């Protein structure tokens, strides 16, 4: 079979990590007899530089006619002074919206080899960490009304958080279905003691839960959830939450699993073309130094093989190879600890490809 992948490498470390992910895909193709074709698309700062638009029409068209999209990361200080509509992040938000990508699936797993890189005490992580964040991706405050105006005491700015019943229902259903494939528990995180949008969220999640009597549902306020992630991370199975809370909590979840450079994600939606991307950003502080950990992007490719192409054995081969390099003691700087072997971005990619 031939699979067409649109590749939006983006900015900062994006191109470096995507290059390694593609070499791992090539190794999979060679071993299992598949052909992957890649079409580069400009998104984010790179697109602003080449075409004056963070998501040129041409890029969107290529993504729409591909079988899946692989994204590195977008953004960086170079474009920070641009107005909102022209910023790199706007390109990514528009791409997610245009592809109908409403469910961002972010597994956060602590590999036993990385226990040293986890800042939590051994007694807290003894039962392991295996959380799946299901983050709403097309609504909420990132897409709400916003603006600046002159107020009574000077400049004011506002961002609106709005969720419809329809939006909550479909993301809740994704979470409950995910829980069925895992340990049958959903923790829905909101701020229903204060926010009206969270009260709707809670009501709709309850309604969907009634269709899944085999799944345990627990509600948690976001402030408590951020504490529980540190205090009792093993208590979470599927963590269902809004766009902004999911953005923040998954960065927190990444730290307790060692590094943000380890966590992949899949953005699933209505149009059939899904996007796979590491959860981290473009890391301008380490771009060009070969310090970036490519594992999050490589594991995102494993998610692509499994969810978009139905290639489970191939996905597993990547995941096993990642475990293999960690067992061998190979570490990029973000997960380095005493007695381990320091490798750079390219070496890490090559070693993973070799183990497949
Ligand atoms: P970031 O995720 O890029 O970096 C946060 C910290 O984690 C930095 O110290 C960075 O060096 C480190 N880090 C990130 N990925 C790493 C990797 N693969 N290996 C090793 N270390 C890694 O977040 P930050 O600094 O807040 O944002 C930088 C830029 O990225 C901004 O322009 C931001 O808007 C953009 N961004 C883009 C995202 C996307 O494209 N999906 C998501 C988050 C931020
Ligand atoms: Mg984030």
UniProtKB/TrEMBL annotation:
The keyword Cell membrane does not apply. It is found in: Cytoplasm. Substrate binds at residues 96, 106, 135, 223. It holds the Pfam family Iso_dh. SMART domains: Iso_dh. Its EC number is 1.1.1.85. It comes from the Bacteria. GO terms for molecular function: 3-isopropylmalate dehydrogenase activity; magnesium ion binding; NAD binding. Keywords: Amino-acid biosynthesis, Branched-chain amino acid biosynthesis, Cytoplasm, Leucine biosynthesis, Magnesium, Manganese, Metal-binding, NAD, Oxidoreductase. InterPro entries: IsoCit/isopropylmalate_DH_CS (IPR019818), IsoPropMal-DH-like_dom (IPR024084), Isopropylmalate_DH (IPR004429). One of its GO terms (cellular component) is cytosol. The keyword Magnesium applies. Transmembrane segments: none annotated. Belongs to the isocitrate and isopropylmalate dehydrogenases family. LeuB type 1 subfamily. This is 3-isopropylmalate dehydrogenase. It comes from Peptoclostridium acidaminophilum DSM 3953.
